[in-house]
Amino acid sequence: MATDNPVFMRLVAAITPIVSIGVGSAVVSVCSKKGLTPDTLETKDLPGLKDALVAHYERFWAQKIGDIRTALSQA
To answer: Model-level pTM?
Structure first.
């Protein structure tokens, strides 16, 4: 999915230096689970998305979860 939504792009940009593959897909997946559309994300959606992304990545990238949390806190 290609989107130029600035909130989506912030999330992808924050995580990509740590996990370089599938970040956009992960954000889309988390949005879907939360009933959000990536094209219409707003700043108010960030807290819930950040928490959901940390939970998502804990399953696959547990060794990098501290770096992911730090990056998302700055997004």
So the answer is: 0.83
